[in-house]
Amino acid sequence: MGFDGFIQLVTVLIIFILVLLVTYFTTRFVGGYAKNKVMNGNIEIIDSAKVAPSKYIAIVRIASKYAAIGIGKDEITYLFDVPEDAIVERSQGTVMNYDFKELMEKARARMGKK
């Protein structure tokens, strides 16, 4: 491998790194744009629960109203309106209004039963 081969290798590595950087920043930009669009929208899924394979019940906020909907493989069904004061807030995936010590005791009790 002569000097020309070394120059080609360095050039290819620089181009590869540049492509990676452009891809990284493009992905961050597009992801940030999509996240802002979703967070600033008028539709938000508040909570959902799986009730059967490929069937869910979800609480959604549309504008300032809340509704319960059934979601199946090929359909979405309106179930009923949910009063705003009945919504339980969640924060970062953890249910609020629970004491961590209380949750640990419940988990320990379940583990002891098995």
Tell me what you see in this structure.
There is one protein chain. By secondary structure, the chain is α+β, with helices and mostly antiparallel strands. It folds into two domains: 1-41; 43-113, no CATH class. 45% of the residues lie in helices and 31% in strands. The chain is built from two helices and six strands, in the order αββββββα. The chain has helices spanning 3-39, 100-113, and strands spanning 43-52, 55-62, 65-71, 76-81, 90-91, 94-95. The strands form two sheets. A four-stranded antiparallel β-sheet has the order 1-2-3-4, with no helix packed on it. A two-stranded antiparallel sheet has the order 5-6. Strand 1 (43-52) and strand 2 (55-62) form a beta hairpin. The radius of gyration is 25 Å and the shape is elongated. The N and C termini lie far apart (66 Å). The relative contact order is 0.07.
How would you sum up this structure in a few lines?
The chain has 114 residues and is α+β, with helices and mostly antiparallel strands.
> What's the mean pLDDT score?
81
Uncertain regions spanning at least 5 consecutive residues: none
Largest sheet, order of strands side by side? 1-2-3-4
Question: Helical content, roughly?
Answer: 40-55%
What is the number of helical segments per DSSP (H or I, 4+ residues)?
2
Rg over C-alpha atoms, rounded to the nearest angstrom: 25 Å
Spell the H/E element sequence. Answer: HEEEEEEH
Total number of β-strand segments? 6
